[in-house]
Amino acid sequence: MQGMQQDQACVPARREWCKRSGLFVAGLGAASSLALPGRALAAPAAAAGDLQMLNTALGLEYQAIAAYQVGAESGLLQKPVLALAVSFQGQHKAHAGVLETTIRRLGGTPVAPRKPADYGFPTDRLKNQADVLEFAAGLEKGAASAYLGTVGRFAMPQLAKAAASILGDETMHWAILLQALGKDPVPAAFIA
């Protein structure tokens, strides 16, 4: 119960932090065209704001990769759930790769990844598989909510399209994790 309360407390805090910093994470499908060799990006004057949002998103992708690593190494996940966590981590790695390439193509410098211990994950409260799933579901829900708030904030339309794509991906992650917990995978008609 305490772990669930922590996750619920983290989601609004993360959502607010992401809103302030302009979170965006490029979806692999929609954003893959941004990273194609030889394809130039037309960067408007407002690209500096886009770069800031992209770097914030990259930092959060690194956080997601680290979180799934912590879950995978916890020894608490059964084989099918471990495979799911590794799959989601792989998608976050793909997102990070596209973000890094996009940031460079726009003339920016990608942020560096941090060590898992630097994120302050509640590892002391992860006692069983359900705790790990609750933790991951809370992060995915917070990410989906944050992406929703940024879709229309990009100067470059390609980036807004990619934000919408990754919103869908994060929402699917959240729904699957809720299903794995035995909860309603679509608890509301809208996300906030």
Describe the model.
There is one protein chain. The protein is mainly α. It has a single domain (2-11, 46-180), classed as Ferritin (Up-down Bundle), CATH 1.20.1260. It is 64% helix and 0% strand. It has six helices and no strands. It has helices at 2-21, 28-31, 47-73, 79-105, 129-148, 157-180. The two termini are 23 Å apart. 38% of the residues are buried.
Number of helical runs?
6
Which structural class should the secondary elements be placed in?
Answer: mainly alpha
CATH architecture: Up-down Bundle
Terminus-to-terminus distance:
23 Å
Outline the fold blueprint.
Blueprint: H1 2-21, H2 28-31, H3 47-73, H4 79-105, H5 129-148, H6 157-180
Question: What does this entry show, briefly?
Answer:
By secondary structure, the protein is mainly α. It is built from 6 helices and no strands. It is globular and about 45 Å long.
List key phrases describing it.
disordered N terminus, 0% strand, mainly alpha, 192 residues, Ferritin
